[in-house]
């Protein structure tokens, strides 16, 4: 084994103390950047050397170098994502510390700096915004989007409300596609691996009318057998059947006026929604019936299904005048999910449910940007109209007669939310001196929401306290102001230092899940959530272009933090779940982040990034119900330590061909999947090692590779949650996968 591979493997074996000492050594990273910069200014650049690739980003809705943006963020080109084997958003968490895509009660949710959640119902928004070419696609189904035809991905940490609006209180993810161009290009990538995993990706770029109209089309197919064995049916239900396609057209009216149209579609299908049962049906302390008491084994009797379909249309008009650029971005997004689940997670016929979720969103943004003297500016107007509906049916089956309940009883809940948002926003960068810039931003937002709620049930008193609701309506309107102010100091071309304050707002919502009579009698509305965030950072590139070091130290305080919970009620027989949507008093998060990249030789690139995170409920007095104080508990899905290390080595051969080795090791520390912080929701930290080893032909058009994920076959937990009978269920991450890949580029 080469020494570089040994070192990366050893990274996976580091214990917690070693990890802590490593990050503590980097905790003074802002100060260290100044020392690195001073040292590097004395170094003479060497002749005939490669330099690190500069990435241009649009995080502030104008083109800038990643190193010049006064925000803690990570960015990856499409080629870099392909080299790392990243095909969906979930895979990004192995490259970006303080970024995680987790299953929050069967809903894929993004957590940034330990803050995430939302999305289980249409009345509870997610906290991280996902944007495709400037169009908001933040529905829960988009949290594991398939990536096709991408130019780059940008991950912005911290609240981004002044430019990206409400509900970006934890961060934003920008998916930027590769625009059609006048050059003919084509690419095909095919792979085959264990579990009969097959992936085929193709793309083509072509001019349709010379110097006027260009087209880019990309599509992908991904299929894989399951890992989880169902002893009741003899099947492996957690298969994957994913399809995605994107068409883009660019029309040049003239050199200054461009129109970009896009249409995309994604379909993802599996036959397992959740993972394995972690307890017996009623969580009495027993385990599932053997052999379904081990990882990747279940005994469900009811066939599950998880189907997601999303599609969208986008139109961007861009006109460059002499001193100003005008941009119009119009988008329409549709998202649908159908999931059927065995609620008791056993071979018994106790209960199952059918869920249908649908979202439709229209958005329009008008933006002006330019430069006047020492002032760089972005200013705009935004409008969004969203309708979302849940149609969810819960069936208590034949065995519930043993509990004294009517068998085959049905409960249906049907919330519908109409949401309209309007905003005016601006971002201003004013050069106070040649090296010092004042950064200001603000967004004034007005939003209305209307809830229509219906619920029917056979389980009326005395069997349950479930409410019968017919035509219940309520509404809210909110005005919010999200300012940002900061200073950026660039003493030379190699260094950027910044300090920034920003405020973010998450709009209010409604408790619109399965409701009992007591909840209906109370106020169903949820208060608006706000966050005040403070951040200082430093970004540095050595004068020879072979070393970069970026770092940030942040503190954020959330007021009226919105929390969705599945509380276990042990004071009734049998125990059951109470769905609660409440405002916690205060949440605080803080910690350092860093990432460095080093090019020690022309053929070798090394990367290391990491974060230490403090994330807790500072005030959550009735978090577990009346009188049950969760203050001091750690936020769910908020590991204290996260690291990522990368190695990219290329070796040229005398015949013009090239070999390569690309490795990625990531560490996610201990965490909880529930705000109660009970032992049953504890997840141990884990380390994953992924990589690709391959060869490129002399003409550079064809590449052959061997790939592997979870090289050391680590068994790791992605989260545990309670279900209707208080049954505990959870999901394990994929075991080791491997295969071969061939790509051809023209």
In short:
By secondary structure, the protein is mainly beta. The protein is 6% helix and 56% strand.
Present the secondary structure layout.
Layout: H1 3-11, H2 16-26, H3 29-41, E1 56-57, E2 64-65, E3 73-77, H4 78-83, E4 99-104, E5 107-112, E6 128-132, E7 135-136, E8 150-157, H5 161-164, E9 171-177, E10 185-193, E11 197-209, E12 213-224, E13 229-230, E14 240-254, E15 257-270, E16 276-277, E17 297-298, E18 305-320, E19 324-342, E20 351-372, E21 375-396, E22 409-431, E23 436-457, E24 469-492, E25 495-506, E26 509-510, H6 517-521, E27 525-526, E28 529-541, E29 547-569, E30 576-601, E31 604-612, E32 614-619, E33 641-652, E34 658-668, E35 671-672, E36 682-683, E37 686-696, E38 702-709, E39 717-722, E40 728-732, E41 737-745
Parallel strand pairs: 6-9, 13-17
Antiparallel strand pairs: 1-2, 3-8, 4-5, 6-7, 8-9, 10-11, 10-41, 11-12, 12-14, 14-15, 15-18, 16-40, 18-19, 19-20, 20-21, 21-22, 22-23, 23-24, 24-25, 25-28, 26-27, 28-29, 29-30, 30-31, 30-32, 31-33, 33-34, 34-37, 35-36, 37-38, 38-41, 39-40
Q: What does this protein structure show overall?
A:
The structure is a single chain. The protein is mainly β and 746 residues long. The chain has one domain (3-745): TonB-dependent receptor, beta-barrel domain (Maltoporin, Chain A, Beta Barrel), CATH 2.40.170.20. It has six helices and 41 strands. The longest helix is centred in the N-terminal third of the chain and has 13 residues, at 29-41. Mean pLDDT is 89; it is low at 1-46.
